[in-house]
Amino acid sequence: MTTRTKALLGVLGVCVIAGGAMLWANRPAPPSKISPFMVPESVKSGQAREGPPPVLFAAPKFEMTDQNGQPAGDKALHGKVWIADFIFTHCAGSCPKVTSKFVELQKSIHDPDIRFVSFSVDPARDDPKTLKDYSDKNNAGDMRWMLLRPADQASVIQVAKHMAAIAPSTSHDAVAHTDFFILIDPDGKVRGLYDSKNDLEVEKLKHDATILNAERIAAQHPGRSST
Fold this sequence. Notes:
Layout: H1 3-25, E1 57-58, E2 63-65, E3 71-73, H2 74-77, E4 82-87, H3 95-108, E5 115-120, H4 128-139, E6 145-148, H5 153-162, E7 180-184, E8 189-195, H6 199-220
Parallel strand pairs: 4-5, 5-6
Antiparallel strand pairs: 1-8, 2-3, 4-7, 7-8
């Protein structure tokens, strides 16, 4: 190999190294810590709009057992506006705060026709008695609140996925769940997802639920006022 060839190869090597360094320097920044609950931009409840919330997608069908040991599923909720969350009673992380917000929501919405549904994501420990004790501890006497135990964890995770309400487990909680509330209309369509940690979104949820229930009353009872 001649001296000239060696020189050319040396220059080429320097160019390759320099080019690689430039690509590395201009690489996309790594994502920040991923949110425990990723909501698609197209379904975020905070989007500016007028009137009732849009239909996002159909809620899944399900059959579970309530806190009274009775069968309960989507058919029992058909024709009702309902708000859902996903919890488990032994949660050491966000669930107590989520449940506190959920109870506040129940107490601020006085309409007897609106339902509140808490799906347990820990059926191994959340039997009907445990769920009943949990409801009595947090908001005794509110017959609108259904706490549901699935047949197994896989089935409730499927429900959560179909409601866009799935999150990874954390260092505090070994079970996947979410801090979001989900609004479902009388036809079983998801109409919004609302961050329970955001007071403005919770207020928006109250407003949207009231609108949907007024529409339900108007459709079923023409001429009847919703107030």
